[in-house]
Amino acid sequence: MIIITGATGRLGRTTVERLLGRVPAGRIGVSVRDPEKAGDLRARGVRVRRGHFADPASLAHAFEGASQVLIVSADTTGEAALRLHRTAIDAAAKAGAGRIVYTGHMGTSPSSLFPPMRDHAATEEALRASGVPFTSLRNGFYASTTAVLLDAALRTGELAVPEDGPVSWTSHDDLAEAAAATLAEEAFDGATPALTGGEAVDMAGVATLASDIIGRPIRHVVVPDADYRSGLVAHGVPEHGADILTAMFAAARRSEFSHVDPALGRLLNRPPTPLRDVLTAALDHGTAPTRP
């Protein structure tokens, strides 16, 4: 049985939907914090069980009979994230899973300026130490992030952000389809190539795309890192979160996310979804979503 964690989140849920097009529902199980939110999956024949990375006993039940487990990375950072990931890895190993698939990132590196990339690197080390065959999906940066960054710009006409660099933005749907294909075909051993979109676009390019889409100018303005961080805090972003967001730009200007690789297109058997298409869908009636 293929177990998908985080199956009520955006990436996990879409992965389940794509996997249902490849394997029978009876071969799929989901591990979710709130089973009631996955009731429609149960009605379609998917096994639904409660599982929480902070509760090893719940994972033992949720992972029962697993042939493969997809561990969707936790929505936190630092030691908290690593503790949750290690618990999930240990539970998958104890359940007898033949392979663990993990949603990592193209920028994975212990020396990254962007803290989540260091977490991914440490998680990959935990996967290697587990002794269970694994695949770490080196996913491209979520393209939906650009819509979040444009939220204020839609009101002010200015995309005011720190100095950055090109990023190979990649759609959630493409990455979910890639995860489903990897699970169904048992593709890749260890860390994958970078699973990226077809081009790398910087913030100036994002502003140009947004201007074309909404039919009015969005001007790209570079602001100092410290000013950007203080502005985030002034608007209610916790200091830790402001540090991470600011570090994202520092990593981008060091070209940590600029690599473009054909691996995703080969896996999908089609070109990856362009950033323009993602932004066109997101910038509906001049509004952007509040989170990636």
Keywords for this entry:
UDP-galactose 4-epimerase, domain 1; disordered C terminus; Rossmann fold; 292 residues; two-stranded parallel sheet; 12% strand; alpha/beta
What would you say the CATH architecture of the largest domain is?
3-Layer(aba) Sandwich
pLDDT averaged over residues: 95
Number of beta strands: 9
N-to-C span:
30 Å
CATH class of the largest domain: Alpha Beta
- Estimate the strand proportion: 5-15%
Q: Order of SSEs, N→C?
A: EHEHEHEHEHEHHEHEHEHHHH
Portion in helices: 40-55%
Structural class from helices and strands?
alpha/beta
Biggest β-sheet: count, sense, barrel? 7 strands, parallel
How many alpha or pi helices? 13
Shape: globular
- Radius of gyration over all CA atoms, rounded: 19 Å
Low-confidence runs:
285-292
Number of domains: 2
Quaternary structure classification: single chain
The CATH superfamily of the largest domain turns out to be NAD(P)-binding Rossmann-like Domain
Strand order of the largest sheet: 3-2-1-4-5-6-8
CATH-defined topology of the largest domain: Rossmann fold
Notes on the protein architecture:
The longest helix is centred in the first third of the chain and has 17 residues, at 78-94. The chain folds into two domains: 2-137, NAD(P)-binding Rossmann-like Domain (Rossmann fold, 3-Layer(aba) Sandwich); 144-167 and 198-258 and 273-282, UDP-galactose 4-epimerase, domain 1, CATH 3.90.25. It has helices at 10-20, 39-43, 56-62, 78-94, 115-130, 144-149, 151-156, 172-185, 203-214, 225-234, 239-253, 263-268, 275-282, and strands at 2-5, 28-32, 47-50, 68-71, 99-103, 134-137, 158-161, 190-191, 219-222. Mean pLDDT is 95; it is low at 285-292. Helix 1 packs across helix 8 (172-185), helix 4 runs parallel beside helix 5 (115-130) and helix 10 (225-234) packs antiparallel against helix 11 (239-253). Helix 1 links the parallel strand 1 (2-5) and strand 2 (28-32). It is an alpha/beta fold and 292 residues long. The strands form two sheets. A seven-stranded parallel sheet has the order 3-2-1-4-5-6-8, sandwiched between helices. A two-stranded parallel ribbon has the order 7-9.
